[in-house]
Structures are given as structure tokens and as C-alpha cells.
Amino acid sequence: MPAKLDAVSVGQDLFGGGTSSGSESVNHPGSSLAQDVAAFLAVLLTTEVDLTAATFAPTWGGTAMSLLAAPRRWDSNKGMLAVYKLEDPPPGPRTVTLAYSGVPTELLTRNLMLIPSTYQGVESIGTPVDAGGGSTTSNSLTVNTGLPAHRGVSWHGVGKGRTYTKTGNNRTKRQSLAMLGGGSLLQQDAAGNNGSLTLTATHNLATPNWAAFAVDLAPAKVRGSVTIPLGISLACSGGTYRTAPPGKFWEIPAGAPINELA
Questions:
Q1: What whole-number distance in Å separates Cα of residue 115 and Cα of residue 4?
Q2: Which of 6, 96, 130, 206 has the fewest CB atoms within 10 Å of its CB?
Q3: Are 75 and 6 in contact (CB under 8 A)?
Q4: Rounded distance, CA 225 to CA 227, Å?
Q5: 72: which DSSP letter?
Q6: pLDDT tens digits, residue range 149-193?
Q7: In sequence order, what E strands does 90-209 have?
Q8: How far apart are CA 76 and CA 96, in angstroms?
Q9: DSSP assignment of 191-235, as one string?
Q10: How far is residue 206's CA from residue 171's CA, in Å, rounded to a whole number?
Q11: What is the layout of strands, in order, in the sheet containing 63-64?
């Protein structure tokens, strides 16, 4: 079966400069009928403090998620993009929570953006690629994809004062978020194309404060059952057959019950 989007949701929070720990939760409307699910959580956080020592603990329906790849930071570690994954979670609606701690305090508020998503029909998550840095108005990543049943997914984050344009994606946009002056987060995907797939996002002004991740999702094997009705016809000649097990004789007349002879 092809790998395809199951559901996507969003969450955001503007938390105070004096807050060093807390959490943000999102109700994700996954389908209970989805099979072979892969779950992701993209996190964008922009501040005016160094986030290197901060810790983040995302859970999907109470189950801990792991990093897709090491987080990307920019602007002296004041901005951060991270993507988390959970392979084969139970399908259906779930509460997605990001707990954070160790964020240094400051005078300004912080901008937190979340995009949880689920894909179904996923056999495995490929090796991620990532990029960041270099002043530009667009950023691209290329993933190796197989047959059209594969799906390439990318997440793009840009720092304060920048937003992704409405048509700033070259693949199917699944969700985008922007907070006033606080940056922007975008997710897009596309079917595989028997080779390499490039995913590009464009923002309004050039900046080196951005990062992006992309990954290929391999499709799950087709599962199902088939019932084949079979008609059986038996025939025998109309003669009389005899069999002689030790000490017994049986007569089997055609069309008549078996008779014990001895």
C-alpha cells in the first residue's frame, strides 16, 4: 500500500520570558482505521537566549518519541528546529505533548510552534537529511525515493521576522504556522518519483536563520486475505469392491451401505 498522510494538526504557545519549564499539548485527530502508522512532531522555538542547555521531552499518547536527527539551531542558538518520530504507534486520536525545561529566562516572550502528523502505510522511515545556514530566501533538501508508493516529507523552520510565503512550497503543503515576528514552520510532502525528490520552501526575506529536515517513507507491504471457493466432484465405477484387513472382509456394493461379511 502507498505511504500517505493520515492526519496533521497544529499547536502554538507564546510563553513568558520568566518561564523556564512547562508543556504544550495538541489533540491530534488520527484515524482509528489507519494501518502501519508513523508519527512525527515538528518543533520550532525562537527566543533571545541560548537554547543549548534546554531539554525537550515529547510524548505521543503517553509514549516517548525519539529525535529524527539532531536538532538544528541558529542565531547563536536562539532559534531551534527539531523533528521527533514514533514508529508504529496505535492508530486513532492521541494527545501529543511537548514538555520543556531548562530554558533560560529573559525579558521577552518565546515563540513555540508544533506540527504533529501521522502517515499510514509506512513500512520504514528512511535516513533523514538536513540543512541550515547561509543567507537565502529559499531552502531545499533532496531525498532518495523509490516507487511512487514512497513518500518524501520535509519540515522547514525560519527564525524571527520571517515567514514562509503562501506559495512558498514546491510540494503539497500539509500545514504552515507563523507567529507575529516569531518565525514560521512549514510541512510538505510528495509521492516518490523512482529516484531523487527535491523539496523546497521559500520565505519572504533572506536570512541565515533557518533549518530543514526531510525523510523518505517506504510503503508497507499489501496485506489482506482472499477466499477462493472450490467445488469438489468425486466419481467411481459401479463395480463391487472388496478389501480384506486382517480378520475382516467388507463388501462395498455400488450405491449401497458397506456390509461386514466376516
A1: 17
A2: 206
A3: no
A4: 7
A5: E
A6: 999 999 999 999 999 998 899 999 999 999 999 999 999 999 998
A7: 94-101, 110-120, 122-125, 129-132, 136-145, 151-158, 164-169, 172-179, 183-191, 195-207
A8: 29
A9: E--SEEEEEEEEEEEEES-EEEEEEEEEEPPP-------------
A10: 21
A11: 22-28, 94-101, 55-60, 63-64
- Calculate the CA dihedral of residues 122, 123, 127, 130 and round it to 10 degrees: 0
What are 153's strand-pairing partners? 189, 215
Q: Please tell me the distance from the alpha carbon of residue 183 to that of residue 79, in angstroms, as a whole number.
A: 9
Task: Report the amino acid identity of residue 176.
Answer: S
Output DSSP code: residue 155.
Answer: E
Which of the four pLDDT bands, split at 50, 70 and 90, describes residue 241? very low
Give which of 78, 44, 48 is closest to 186, Cα–Cα: 44
Eight-state DSSP code of residue 45:
E
236 C-beta neighbours (distance < 10 Å), count: 8
Cell of 133: 545556514
d(CA 197, CA 190) in angstroms, rounded, equals 8
Strands 63-64 and 55-60: antiparallel
